[in-house]
Write a structure and sequence with these properties.
Layout: H1 2-6, H2 12-39, H3 53-82, H4 84-87, H5 97-103
């Protein structure tokens, strides 16, 4: 029972970083593909995706979406690093010399 009481939760920032990072990757690849198609607009086969709604939306809001996602990723990363000691179980830090020095 005592072990369950002292058990700490996992860092929630890590769980938030996964979907935000995945969204950033998808947006970045789609934006890059859209830009590649615009550069190669004269070649055959590139016009088939030209009117796709995703590429229209990315053309208008893609840069803003990427910057917002990057800012959220940065904030979550700083939050994860800053609060990591709070969420780490004491038994995992037992051999850490910095933690041992703090306890003295």
């Amino acid at each position: 029972m005592v072990a369950e009481k002292n058990k700490k939760w996992k860092n929630p920032f890590y769980a938030l970083l996964i979907p935000v990072g995945a969204a950033f990757c998808v947006t970045a690849f789609a934006y890059g593909f859209m830009a590649f198609q615009q550069v190669n607009a004269g070649r055959a086969g590139t016009a088939e995706h030209a009117g796709h709604p995703l590429f229209d939306w990315l053309g208008k809001h893609g840069t803003t979406a990427l910057l917002i996602e990057l800012a959220v990723l940065a904030l979550l990363t700083v939050g994860a690093i800053a609060t990591d000691n709070r969420w780490t179980d004491d038994s995992q830090r037992a051999g850490d010399p910095l933690t041992d020095a703090d306890q003295r």
